[in-house]
Write a structure and sequence with these properties.
Radius of gyration: 54 Å
Helix content: 55-70%
Distance between the termini: 226 Å
Mean pLDDT: 74
Order of helices and strands: HEHEEHEHHEEHH
């Protein structure tokens, strides 16, 4: 009987040990599977994030387009008016328009007694800056080409700023998250004054960074939506001739002329008398010399 009981206990112990080993192997296998699948999950999460960012960048490819032109026209004033009308027609805006005339030569010729012929050679230049919708840039440039008489320069550029826009958006997200964490820390953990002030300074810095990134994105989006066109136009030198009235003093009548002549004669006589009076010493010497000469001449004259 005892032998049977011992055999039963031995069998029970062996069975329990076998079952425990199987459970241990299963747990180890599950742990191995879970451990091996964890990096795979992380990798899949990272891959998903990268894929989302790449897709977002591909969807946000934006271009800032600009055009610079310099050309000669037949008439700067008329061409400027036509260009401004074209810009307004396609929903654009003229942000700068300046016309300047430079005189290169000026000559005056007496044409008649009371008129002068003035010849002026001048050149006119115009500088314009236009903002037009991005989709209408090519149309506006083609319309402006109708005014060109001789083309000096034409440059059209497209700068991709999609990556910069995405970078600014990500910076805004980071700053926004940091703002919330700092604000929560101030409300829940900021007990001492110096800690609160330090946290407030950090929050202000994050707010400033957030605002700068937002303003930068707004500026970029504005440049993407509206292209900038810079124009410099000029025309050949032009000569303008015109008759202008000359300033002529009216001729006096004969009575006034005679009166002026009498006055002039009297002034001359006064001048002569004044001059003679100034020479009185010389006249006196000449008179004395004449007297001495006469006396000498009488003494030397032979008696008849």
């Amino acid at each position: 009987m005892k032998t049977i009981l011992k055999s039963a206990w031995a069998l029970l112990a062996a069975t329990t040990l076998f079952i425990s080993c199987k459970q241990g192997e299963t747990t180890i296998e599950e742990a191995a599977v879970n451990t091996s699948s964890a990096p795979e999950s992380i990798a899949m999460g990272n891959a998903t994030t990268v894929a989302d960012t790449t897709k977002k960048f591909a969807d946000n490819r934006k271009f800032i387009r600009t055009a610079d032109l310099r050309f000669k026209v037949k008439d700067v004033a008329k061409s400027t008016t036509a260009i401004e009308s074209t810009t307004n027609k396609f929903g654009g805006l003229v942000t700068h328009s300046n016309l300047e005339t430079t005189v290169t030569h000026r000559d005056e010729t007496q044409f008649s007694q009371d008129s002068t012929l003035v010849s002026t050679r001048y050149a006119i230049e115009g500088n314009l800056t236009l903002r037009v919708p991005n989709a209408k840039l090519d149309t506006v440039v083609k319309s402006i080409a109708k005014e060109i008489d001789f083309l000096d320069l034409r440059v059209i550029k497209a700068d991709d700023v999609g990556l910069q826009l995405l970078s600014n958006e990500l910076a805004q997200q980071r700053n926004s998250q940091q703002q919330r964490r700092i604000a929560q820390a101030i409300d829940s953990k900021g007990k001492k004054l110096n800690q609160i002030l330090t946290a407030e300074d950090a929050l202000a810095g994050k707010n400033e960074n957030y605002d700068q990134a937002k303003l930068s994105n707004l500026a970029l989006k504005d440049q993407v939506a509206f292209s900038t066109v810079t124009l410099k136009i000029y025309q050949p030198e032009t000569t303008r001739k015109e008759l202008v009235a000359s300033v002529v003093t009216p001729r006096p009548n004969i009575g006034l002329q005679l009166l002026d002549s009498v006055k002039t004669g009297w002034y001359i006589l006064e001048s002569v008398l004044a001059f003679v009076v100034q020479l009185w010493s010389l006249i006196l010497l000449a008179f004395l010399g004449f007297l001495v000469y006469r006396k000498t001449l009488r003494k030397t004259k032979p008696a008849l």
